Each structure stands twice: as structure tokens, then as C-alpha cells.
Amino acid sequence: MKAGTNMTIAGKIVYVLLLLTITMVMRSAGNNSSVLVMTVGNSSVLTCPLKGNITMLRWTITPKAGGLCTLVYRVDMNMTHRTTCSDNINWTFRAGLPPALEIRQVGIAQEGNYSCEFSSTEGNFHKMYHLTVLAPPRLSLSCDEQGSPVCEAAAGKPPAQLLWVPERSSTADEKCHDNGTVTVLSKFTACSTNVTNVTTCIVSHPAGNWSQTIACCPSEKINTNVFLYACSITCVLMIITLLAVIYYFKLHSDRSCHKTKPPEIAPIHSQQDDTMEVEPYTTYVQKENVIYNSVSDLTVGQNLPQNLCPGT
Ligand SMILES: *[C@@H]1O[C@H](CO)[C@@H](O)[C@H](O)[C@H]1NC(C)=O
Ligand SMILES: *[C@@H]1O[C@H](CO)[C@@H](O)[C@H](O)[C@H]1NC(C)=O
Ligand SMILES: *[C@@H]1O[C@H](CO)[C@@H](O)[C@H](O)[C@H]1NC(C)=O
Ligand SMILES: *[C@@H]1O[C@H](CO)[C@@H](O)[C@H](O)[C@H]1NC(C)=O
Ligand SMILES: *[C@@H]1O[C@H](CO)[C@@H](O)[C@H](O)[C@H]1NC(C)=O
């Protein structure tokens, strides 16, 4: 009985010690580095947890893009010095306190690690901030040509989550931009037959939640299809009519040509001249024929007698 109580007491002590250790570890980790989340365009003041009478304070910034930047403050001379840092990062002076670091209208480019170090009567200390910058997406909801709603969350960081109410199977297309933002486009995978007119697109993002509602006319789809069919049928009919007209005129003109053509009374030369004036193509054919004819004439004139001689 007594041994059992001792055991439970020992267990409790161990448990408490374990908890204490965990909290201490967590606290020291939390003191040295912390995550800072800001939304594009917002401003923030970063402070170093100062101890004792400080002599020197320094911020070292390592942005994800771009070079390292440092800001140094010397207490004894009340003097600040900075290397090439972004214009919207600077010291901010506070009455009776060492200056703090101010980030005005933060941009995605300012994302990175912000480390502060200071020397004081109690020693040297440092603290790290991991800055993450959120870009809220721009929500737009529209109806496509098929009468289905299309939801777009443009230029969000991180990419937004899109949801549909009422729920429907959809595909989300992601397009990454150079600055680290992502545009998400959600469309329905299949159009259901029992579509409710009103659809809501919900954008869920760490920078906030938004929703927009739209009523797409599902009959619009049928209308467009009917319109398309009508259009294509008209087009086909028009082409057929045109071809028929062309064919008719061609026939007609050929006949009239034959009619007006003098039937072999005119000499060959004059006929050639006439065609030359009218159609170059015909002339070419005619000339070819003339050459052929002359050649055949020649052959007839030279060879035929020899060939025909034995016969005759
Ligand atoms: C800090 O400096 C002030 C004077 O500026 C002095 O009165 C105070 O004792 C100092 N504190 C420590 C802990 O040295
Ligand atoms: C910031 O610090 C973390 C860990 O301390 C490191 O993994 C990361 O690469 C650093 N980022 C930059 C931009 O230096
Ligand atoms: C240090 O200088 C800043 C301007 O650079 C000034 O606003 C501030 O009052 C000064 N602080 C002291 C203690 O002199
Ligand atoms: C659509 O049809 C499904 C079953 O096919 C049914 O469960 C659902 O309630 C219907 N939705 C509407 C809005 O009629
Ligand atoms: C967005 O909505 C979710 C629940 O749907 C909630 O947990 C979250 O805190 C909301 N975020 C913001 C920024 O309001």
C-alpha cells in the first residue's frame, strides 16, 4: 500500500519534471526564433527582447530574393548605419528606448530571415524572425460559354483553396507566377443535368476567407448549341448554293462560248489571236497544241511517206 503511493508520487514527480523540461526547451526555442506572418501591404515593427543596458544593436536581414542587408545602432553615439536595404525597412525611434526595426508596406520580396543581435551588460543575445508574406488572392466568379460557373483566385500566396456550394466535382488548375504567387482556376468536371442556378464559390486562404455567388443560366448551353447548329447549317447551305451558282454560270458561259465560236470557217491564225486576247491559259494550251500539231505535221510530212510506202 505504502510502496504503491510512493510509486505514484515518484511517477508524478517524473511527469512534472518532464513537463518542465519540455516547457523550458520550447521557451528557449521560442525565444531564439519565431515565425512572423504578414499580409502584403501591411506594416509591422520588430523588436529585439533586450536585457540590461545595451551598447550595440544589429539587424541582419537575409531575404529569399536579393542580397543580405544589415542595420547597426550604436547606443553610445546614438548613431545608425545601414547597408543597401530595401527602402521600406528602416529603424523606428521610440522615446526612451533603443530603436526598433520597422517594415512598412511589406512586399513578397521582403520575405526572409530577420535576425537581431545585441550586446549588453548581461552578454550577447540574438533572436531570429522568419517572415512569411501572404498575398490575398483576387476572387472572380463568372459563367463560361457552356453556362457553367468558373471561379478564379488570382495571384494568391500560398495558393487559395476553392470550394463550391452546393458541392460539385471540379478541377483546380494552378498557374504559378514569377513572384511566387499562384492563380487557381476551378471548373466543374462534368455538367450535371439537375443544376441549381445559384452557385457559390468560397475562397479559403490564410489571409482570409471570401465568397461570391453567381447564377449561371444552364439553358444558355442549349441556346448556344442551337445557335451553333443553325450557324453551321446556314454556312453549309450557303457554300452549296454558291457552288451551284458557280457551276451554273460556268456551264452557261461554256455553252455561250461554243455558240459564239465561229464553226471552223475562220482561219486558224485569227482564232489564235482572239483567244490570246481573252485568256492566257487557253493561249498556252493552244500554243502547245500548235507545236504538237506542227511536230506531228512534220512527222507526217517526213516519216509517213517512208512508213506508208511499203503499204502503198
Ligand atoms: C544602465 O544605465 C543606467 C544609466 O544610463 C544606470 O543608471 C543603470 O544602473 C544601468 N543598469 C545596469 C544594469 O547596468
Ligand atoms: C532562414 O532560416 C532557416 C533556418 O534557420 C533556413 O532554413 C532558411 O534557409 C533561411 N532563409 C533564408 C532566406 O536565409
Ligand atoms: C537618437 O537620434 C534620433 C535621430 O537619429 C533621435 O530621434 C533620438 O531622440 C536620439 N536619441 C537620443 C537618446 O539622443
Ligand atoms: C441532383 O441529383 C442527385 C441525384 O442524382 C440528387 O441527390 C440531388 O439532390 C439533385 N440535386 C438537385 C438540386 O436537384
Ligand atoms: C477561414 O475559414 C475557416 C473555416 O472555414 C476558419 O477556420 C479560418 O479561421 C478562416 N480564416 C480567416 C482568415 O478568417
What features would you highlight for this structure?
alpha+beta, Immunoglobulin-like, 4-stranded antiparallel β-sheet, 4 helices, 16 strands, elongated, binds 2-acetamido-2-deoxy-beta-D-glucopyranose
CATH superfamily of one domain: Immunoglobulins
Q: Write down the CATH class of one domain.
A: Mainly Beta
Q: What is the string of SSEs from the N terminus onward? A: HEEEEEEEEEEEEEEEEHHH
Bound molecules: 2-acetamido-2-deoxy-beta-D-glucopyranose
Query: How does CATH name the architecture of one domain?
Result: Sandwich
Q: Work out the number of β strands.
A: 16
Q: Can you offer a commentary on this structure?
A:
This protein is α+β, with helices and mostly antiparallel strands and 312 residues long. Among the domains are: 41-134, Sandwich (Immunoglobulin-like), CATH 2.60.40; 138-220, Sandwich (Immunoglobulin-like), CATH 2.60.40.10. It is built from four helices and 16 strands.
Give a quick precis of the structure.
This protein is α+β, with helices and mostly antiparallel strands.
